[in-house]
Amino acid sequence: MGETNESRLERARHEVSPRKLQKQMAIASAACTVFGREGYARASVDALAAAAGVSTRTLYNHFPGGKAQLFQTVVTWTSSEVRDAQLARLHAVLHPERPPHPDDLERDLVSLARAFHGLMADYANHFALVRHIHAEADHVPPEVLKAWHEAGPEPVGRALTEAMTRLEDAGLLHLHGDAAVAAGHFTALISHRIIQATHYGVLPLPEPETDRLLRAGVSAFLRAYRAP
Questions:
Q1: Cα–Cα distance between 100 and 108 in angstroms, integer?
Q2: Rounded Cα gap, residues 109 and 47, in angstroms
Q3: Any idea what DSSP says for residue 98?
Q4: Which residues contact 62 (CB under 8 A, 6 or more apart)?
């Protein structure tokens, strides 16, 4: 397998000067705003360089792969931030060593749904990128899509699957033999309607409506998966 962009950046920390690394991060930060506004296909290298206050030659010096490499860098960087926040919130609500009391299961799953939903506001730049990734999947290079999944959705999905398995082991859920599918259903039920209505947080819903949808998603999940 080829080296991922995330590992390439980690290696670069040991190979480039702090000044050069600082410049790379400044370019990536400016690019995040441009990609979030324009999407991948519409963002030009000239616009990306201008936003970072550098020449296109300087941009290519730092990112020889041009726009594709820069987009991959931004997506994996922001995905890693969201992943870490999501895992922290998951473990805070469903601690691996403290399964909830049966009477508290719905309350805790609603708390988890709220915590996950809050990420859209806390990491708005990242979810702007995700919105464009879904809209432009046929234009985004496959290696970028792969890097995004490996940096964020896949590890979070595995952690949520493990959490659901622990709840089943504690006698709280019955996952019908497929914890990964159950974890996917939980995510879809608490997020899909809100994502559609808000376009990944661009047009936020009133808080009571958001809470109603989150609770409804958890309720539907428990109707399908609560242990008898």
A1: 7
A2: 43
A3: -
A4: 20, 23, 24, 27
Instruction: Provide the 10 A C-beta neighbour count for residue 55.
Output: 12
Q: List, in sequence order, every residue forming a beta bridge with 226; answer none if it has no partner.
A: 173
Question: CA–CA separation, 128 vs 122, rounded Å?
Answer: 12
Give just the sign of the alpha carbon dihedral 133, 134, 136, 141: positive
Going by C-alpha positions, the residue among 109, 96, 116, 86 that lies closest to residue 166 is 96
Residue 109 exposed, middle or buried by CB count within 10 Å (0-12, 13-18, 19+): buried
Kindly report, residue by residue over 56-91, the tens digit of the pLDDT. 999 999 999 999 999 999 999 999 999 999 999 999
State the pLDDT at residue 11.
56
What is the DSSP track for 35-48? HHHHHHHH--HHHH
Beta-carbon contacts of 208 under 8 Å, excluding residues fewer than 6 positions away, are none
**pLDDT tier, 19 (very low <50, low <70, confident <90, very high otherwise):** confident
Residue 10 confidence class, pLDDT cut points 50, 70, 90 = low
